[in-house]
């Protein structure tokens, strides 16, 4: 037990790195996903195709590969040549990747709204932007909570991929102790950290689903 307690300090430091990446990614990718969803539903075919291609690319290639490309290859791309440090590179990769997934969730939610509500808003003299902000989006949130919950929980687990950039996240901290002490106990403790984080998110989304279901009733 004393050994397990001694692990809590270094693993907690790794968990802070994990949680920071999770929080920043969520704050950036959800609004970006909503914007991409609206562009995906644009009346302009070229814009729809462009956003559709972006979503296809982000969802069709591994997140780890995207991270490695942004960190190692992007500086050598002609004209662009942007160089990121390891942590910003991870944030950019995670944000761009998860925005694509959130965009599809938002798109499905928006398209689930009955067309009659758009027509009713038009009769009331509301613009498209006002219709989306006041009528459509408030109804979309309750409908997309289950898939949004799944993606958010997946995001917590995917943060472990940043070990490829040598960032000292929760998993890397655990692996370092395993290599030092020749015991798998740190992995078990790290798993408990992940389980607690996902449990808190699960409870949070369950509360939101019950709350919105109560309002719908």
From TrEMBL:
Domain ABC transmembrane type-1: 15-205
Membrane topology field: Multi-pass membrane protein
Record flagged with keyword Hydrolase: no
Domain of life: Bacteria
Primary localization: membrane
PROSITE patterns found in the cross-reference section: ABC_TM1 (PS50928)
Cellular compartments annotated: Cell inner membrane; Cell membrane
Alphabetical UniProt keywords: Amino-acid transport, Cell membrane, Membrane, Transmembrane, Transmembrane helix, Transport
Bilayer-spanning residue ranges: 20-42, 87-106, 187-208
Family that this chain belongs to: Belongs to the binding-protein-dependent transport system permease family. HisMQ subfamily.
Entry-linked NCBIfam families: HEQRo_perm_3TM
Protein name: Amino acid ABC transporter permease
Source organism (scientific name): Comamonas jiangduensis
